[in-house]
Amino acid sequence: MIVAVDGPTASGKGTIAKAISAHFGLPHLDTGLLYRAVGRQCALSGGNPDDSDDAFAATAFPDALLADPELRSEAAGGLASRVSLHPEVRQALFKRQREFALQPGGAVLDGRDIGTVIAPDAQIKLFVTASVEARAKRRFLEMQQQGRGITVEEITADLIARDARDTGRTDAPLLAAADAILLDTSDLGRDQAIAAAIAATEARR
Ligand code: C5P
Where in the numbering of this chain does the Cytidylate kinase domain appear (predicted)? Predict the structure, then answer.
């Protein structure tokens, strides 16, 4: 069983993917982390994230970078969204994601293009959305817990810019697959969102 969980930043897709992974005992890959590692590697090596050669070179990041807490920052998210525009970068990360999806026991992957590009053959596709206000509030609380000084206004501006880049790009834009189940988490608490996602997964299994 392959479970594809897609949606915009701070929609709750990561939390939902982890909960599905724990509930069904499936390995989980947060694919955003791969793009964040490319963005961070590009910055660390003095490259320009908007240059396709520099961004592609950064796809050879060391695996240890995936454990860097800095990858969770808004800055790393912004860099990820810039390097992810280059088709060369998406192609370089494709194999790793596809192999993860094809593990014999199944897998859960979350990202932007799992149901459309990485695993169009997934039995279960969830497209998780929430209003910009709900997402900004969640991201703000998360950043506060991590002790990162950033305002709700800054987060909102960043979310809107990232949504525009992610949905507007020509290669693998953020898009719900035709057969995806839509889950709007704006008015759902964490536990309610998880319960709804697990019920939807059970129903299609
Ligand atoms: O989900 P997360 O915020 O960690 O993703 C960071 C950025 O990486 C996104 O804004 C998006 O541009 C990019 N990304 C992508 N395709 C994926 C996962 C993430 O383009 N499958």
Answer: 3-200
